[in-house]
Amino acid sequence: MKPDRQSVILDIISEQVIETQNQLMLALTERGIKSTQATLSRDIKDLGLVKQCGPDGVYRYAVVKQSAAENLSQKRKAILRQGVVSFDLAQNLLVIKTLPGLAMNACSVIDSMHLEKLVGTLAGDNTAFLAMKDNESAQELYQEIEKIIFDS
Questions:
Q1: Confidence band (pLDDT; 50, 70, 90) for 75?
Q2: Which of 32, 95, 135, 138 is the most exposed place for a label (fewest CB within 10 A)?
């Protein structure tokens, strides 16, 4: 539910001028999604939304353009840094080897990046498969993961 709700939040702020959390909550309700203020605050933080001044001088929620790696919290980065043993490309697939039992955590971190070209993730015990729409987007994700794991 959380990824769906956050996806709708991104749609709403791209389509409408949303100045307050209350306006955002009302817009979610109009789309059939109920949320508490606390949940909405966490979603705003998770998505890295900020208030920016628009061309009309009105402050509104917006997405800060950062790489997926920059949007991850330190806790999520630590999961990848400490749990990933190796990773490699196979055309549009990225294969991640983790310590035993951590593949699902790696998939969860990747899913939280809200990558537009991520088709899906699949986790076993110590292996995760990430399917991207094309080879180029798989290469970009490979570089993002490399940046997360090797840059401190």
A1: confident
A2: 32
Q: Nearest CA to 94 among 126, 141, 133, 136?
A: 141
Which overall architecture, per CATH, does domain 2-63 show? Orthogonal Bundle (1.10)
Which contiguous run of DSSP H or E holds residue 114? none
What architecture does CATH give domain 68-150? 2-Layer Sandwich (3.30)
Task: Point out which residues pair with 6 in neighbouring strands.
Answer: none
Q: What are the domain boundaries of the chain?
A: 2-63, 68-150
The pTM is what?
0.55
Cα Rg of the chain, angstroms:
17
